[in-house]
Amino acid sequence: MVLNKRRIGMTELEITTLGLGCASLAGIGSGVPSEQGRATVRHALELGINYFDTAPQYGFGRSEHLSGDVLRDHPSAIVSTKVGRLLRPFHGQRNIGWVDPLPFDQEYDYSYDGIMRSFEDSLQRLGMNRVDILYVHDIGEMTHGAEQNAHYWNQLEQGGYRALRELRESKTVQAIGLGVNEAQVLSDALNMGDWDVFLLAGRYTLLEQGGAPVLDQCALRGTSVVIGGPFNSGILAGGDTFNYMRAPDDVRTRVRALSDICARFDVPLPAAALQFPLNHPAVTCILPGPRSPTELDQIVAWYGSEIPSGLWEALVDEELLH
To answer: Where is the NADP-dependent oxidoreductase domain (predicted)?
Structure first.
């Protein structure tokens, strides 16, 4: 199967419309053997996927190590990682959601020096001398609360953004953006400066389209959007989790309604979930997070399913789509 490519903002980067999110490979919720993680990255390359996203937070460095083991031998691969967290050595027991993380803890820092240090540390963990896209990770009230986020936003506005701009102007990275779970942060960022691409997880999916207004803003500004979490952490792919927690009853009811209409058109619900975000003109790529080559093969099959236009119209008629 030939994967289409779309351009990142006004840059020269062209990424496949299906990418590989490497958070799951670090073992969130359940363990992923290291060789299985590497095999998943290798298989993505074999399938023609050219875009790979990771971050220091994922397994506290484990995801960057695993993905770098494979990607450093493939210079044509387009790689993104994230800044805003510095990793520090840690001793002790924790309940943090990651299975078998590396022995580090995280310290938030969105300042000029923090961004530069985070970037350099990521290059060392990846074992690479370049990263193509650099995202500011998880800045926003959802992660930090209103008061603390105001402090971190000031760090980004007063110094962190300057660091990102310098890295882009020197061609050290090709594109800069934010990687977040809340749409309002992206609107605020558009008022701060000039961004090439945003990674928005979970807020523009078949299940919820609260991020639609900011995606419209991005389309007008020429800022691309990568959609992470197209299955809303599992509920749209046969799982029972929504936003990484057990799905509430109202979400389950809405998913059943979506599934019933998809069945009328003989379309698997996960196929519709994968392909829906790509209908928006700002969206460049969808970024699911398989845990194995087998899961990736299933995602590629869903991605290649034919979706009749009547399905989208029916979902709009039933007020299940914005």
So the answer is: 18-302
For residue 12, being part of any structural domain is answered with yes
Please enumerate, as own/partner, the contacts of 230-233 that have beta carbons within 8 Å and a separation of 24 or more: 230/205, 230/206, 230/273, 230/274, 230/276, 230/277, 230/286, 230/287, 230/288, 231/205, 231/270, 231/273, 231/274, 231/288, 232/202, 232/205, 232/207, 232/208, 232/273, 233/202
pLDDT for the residue numbered 59: 96
User: At a CB cut-off of 8 Å and minimum separation 6, what does 158 contact?
Assistant: 111
Marked catalytic residue, from 53, 109, 121, 138 = 53
- Whether 322 is in a domain gets the answer no
Q: 51 near 22, Cβ under 8 Å?
A: no
pTM here is: 0.97
Active site includes 132? no
- Give the DSSP H/E element, type plus range, for residue 42: helix 34-46
Say whether pLDDT at 94 is over 90: no
* Residues 209-221 pLDDT 10s: 999 999 999 999 9
Selecting among 5, 51, 58, 244, the annotated active-site residue is 58
**CATH code, domain carrying 164:** 3.20.20.100
Look at residue 185 and tell me if it is in a domain: yes
Q: Hey, is 197 helix, strand or coil?
A: strand
Does the annotation mark 53 as catalytic? yes
Q: Is 82 among the catalytic positions? A: yes
Number of folded domains in the chain?
1
Question: SS3 sequence, 200-258?
Answer: EECCCCCCCCCCHHHHHHHHHHCCEEEEECCCHHHHHHCCCEECCEECCHHHHHHHHHH
pLDDT in tens, 9-55: 999 999 999 999 999 999 987 899 999 999 999 999 999 999 999 99
**Residue 72 within a domain:** yes
Q: Name the active-site residue from 5, 51, 69, 82.
A: 82
